[in-house]
Design a protein that fits this description.
- The protein has one domain.
- Helices cover 35% and strands 25% of the residues.
- The strands form five sheets. A three-stranded antiparallel β-sheet has the order 1-5-12. A three-stranded antiparallel β-sheet has the order 4-10-6, with no helix packed on it.
- Helix 2 runs antiparallel to helix 3.
- The chain starts with a strand and ends with a helix.
């Protein structure tokens, strides 16, 4: 499957993409969700003051802290989306990188790759509750890291989740195309042509 990353021409983004295209990738994203489990743990600790609940609480806190450490790379299934060109590609002055999704998920390049999710678009942000612990089939991780408000469904987003935040490696053959916006400056195009030896 082909996936796409829209990029602006701001200097820091452009510089980072040059490094990305040479050997690496990285894109942080804030993850939003509510959780009711902490409140339940507090109630249980009052009713049943046993050490195991303290251990469970500590482990649950570690799961919640995990979101601060992970790496998330956000992509789209659509390279012709006008809104994405406007939002993320400097109003058609940027570019869009086409990737082979299977090659981005290659654990030989990134041993810390864990999950690939298509975003689940909902009217409200996800809520983690006791059912998420009892029924693992609800996919706790997907609920935490791959749910967005339905207002964003036009993005057709796919997320790659890595255990650690930071630059990632991928084989150069993972890049299968590069699209320029109608306003992309010639200097940007020429820089890519030179880099890619076109």
């Amino acid at each position: 499957m082909k996936v796409y990353k829209y990029r602006s021409i701001e200097k820091d983004v452009f510089d980072r993409d040059f490094k990305t295209i040479e050997s690496k990738l990285n894109d942080p994203f804030d993850i939003y969700f509510d959780e009711e489990i902490s409140q339940l743990i507090n109630i249980l600790k009052i009713l049943f003051p046993i050490k195991e609940l303290d251990n469970f609480e500590n482990q649950f806190r570690e799961v919640l802290k995990f979101k601060e450490k992970i790496g998330v790379y956000c992509l789209s299934r659509d390279f012709l989306n006008e809104q994405l060109w406007a939002y993320y590609a400097s109003s058609y002055s940027g570019y869009c990188i086409e990737y082979d999704l299977d090659k981005l998920m290659d654990r030989g390049q990134n041993f810390d790759f864990q999950y690939q999710f298509e975003i689940d678009y909902k009217e409200s942000i996800p809520r983690l509750d006791i059912n998420d612990i009892i029924n693992i089939k609800n996919n706790f991780i997907q609920k935490m890291f791959a749910t967005k408000k339905s207002a964003w469904q036009h993005e057709k987003e796919i997320r790659l989740i890595f255990d650690k935040y930071g630059m990632k490696k991928f084989h150069p053959s993972a890049i299968t195309g590069l699209y320029f916006g109608i306003k992309t400056p010639d200097l940007i195009k020429q820089s890519f042509y030179k880099l890619l030896k076109i």
